[in-house]
Write a structure and sequence with these properties.
Layout: E1 6-10, H1 22-34, E2 39-48, E3 53-55, H2 71-74, H3 84-96, E4 102-104, H4 111-120, E5 128-133, H5 138-149, E6 157-163, H6 169-177, H7 189-204, H8 207-211, H9 213-216, H10 220-223, H11 231-239, E7 245-248, E8 251-252, E9 256-257, E10 260-263
Parallel strand pairs: 1-6, 2-5, 2-6, 3-4
Antiparallel strand pairs: 1-10, 7-10, 8-9
Helix pairs in contact: 1-4, 5-11
Length: 267
Amino acid sequence: MSLLPTLFLSHGSPTVALEPTPAHRFLRTLGARIGRPRAILCISAHWETATPAVTAAERPETIHDFRGFPEALYALRYPAPGDPELAATIVARLAEAGFEARTDPGRGLDHGAWIPLMLMYPDADIPVLQLSVQPASGTGHHLALGAALAPLREEGILVVGSGALTHNLADALGRLRAGATATGEAPPDWALAFDRWVTDRVERGDLAALAAYRERAPFATTAHPTEEHLLPLHVAAAAGGGRGRKIHESFEFGSIGMAVFAFPDLA
């Protein structure tokens, strides 16, 4: 089996599952470009724990962890199987790397996982596991977490970080209340500046700069008032060897960055 890339996906609003935005259309083609992995490990911004945890349900439920959206979203299900044996193997490897990790047999798939995967692999027949993020532990912790996961690429397991390249909900909601739509709104200068800075560092493979993005990147705290939506990028970057390529760029609701990175570039 050829060495798989790792991915960082911006999952955006849950409505990306239904609306034919540029990100929706791109994700619909991405699974075919990558091929069928043995399993998928998704690091989602929407599962925060004190120490790393891996889902270990045989049939993880579809978690609708959002409110106030169209009813059609709540009818969606992504019945992908889990893989408890693989979950235990991943936890054991993380423990060998010095992490205090555990399995969670009760946790399902949140929208950071099932919405992009529903677009990429709509048959829901590939085992999916989730790995939590630890925002209190910082970027270095997540780079080390990614490095510990790197061997999974050789075993047919697709490592996917799911967050957002820019994630300022106060700004996005303000634009939405002012009449913004998912597409057609010009992104603000701060979102473009942050996007360009991160893209440059990813394409240089500059993990040290990415680790220090909060001090070095322009408008870092505007783009990410809290860090949980960027930390999956650090995991994916380190798991994929550091140097990557942006393979999709768009914005939704003005300031929500929907970039996708592959580590390394897709063939």
